[in-house]
Each structure stands twice: as C-alpha cells, then as structure tokens.
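In this supplementary section we document a worked example of the pipeline. Step one takes a protein sequence of length 146 as its only input; no multiple sequence alignment statistics are reported here. Step two produces a three-dimensional model, which step three serialises into structure tokens for compact storage. The input and output of this example are shown verbatim.
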Amino acid sequence: MYPNDAFRDLGRQECLRLLATAQVGRIVFTRQALPAVLPVTFRVDGDGAVLLRTSAASELVRAVAGAVVAFEADAVDADTRSGWSVVVTGRAAVVTDRAELKRLERTGLRSWSSSPAEVFVRVGPDLVTGCELVGGRADHGLHMSA
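The serialised model returned by step three reads:
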C-alpha cells in the first residue's frame, strides 16, 4: 500500500484469521479468455487452502480444475470507512482422495444449490495477501466527513 492511502497491509496469519470469519467470498477465474467472478460459500482449511463445494457438472469445475485462480473475501463498514480484504491465489484442484473427501464431508460445507453429484474444490494458498482499511483516514492524513 502507499503512505496515507488509508490501507494497512496484513500478514499471512492475520489474513487467514479474518478469512475464516467470512461466510461468502468470490472466486476469480478465466471464462473464454476473460476474467470471471462468482460468489461462493467456502471454508478455510487448516493449511490455509480455500475449500469450495459445487456441482460436479458445473461450469466452475470445468473452468478452474488445474488452473491458477484467485479467491477474495472481505468485510466493509461503509459508515466507519473501515474493513478488510483478503486474496488467496493458487492452483485449484478437484479433491479426489477418498480419505480427504471423508474429512471434508465433516466440515459442514454445503453448496448453495444441491446437486446429485457434488465435488470439493481446493484452492492452494500459494500467495495470501490482504489489507485493512483504517477507518477515519483519508488522503494526505486529512479526516473527511461522510
């Protein structure tokens, strides 16, 4: 971040702690050579990976399997001009290991739309970045009223 831009960089552990408090995030992937963004429910796994659950036949699974994607979640309070944003960037993979699938079933993660065949998608935490919007700060250190 730039000095006086009202943002503070967050460390990896702080990013993962905040990310675990969010219920909905956005997965960013490529659709027909263009960026696409889709809101999803998720969980953060113990190693910081982001877990999604969706229909095995979904366009999302076909688009992200094996691809590098970004995942973003945030919380913002417009009244206080404060909040945070965290981005996890890494390779997405459909989970196929039986033991891992049994473990993930116990997380309680559900897809928004039920499907007869669902899969878990894991986004590896290769790069975890985030920032906090510090309430009440504005350009050049001046306080701006709402």
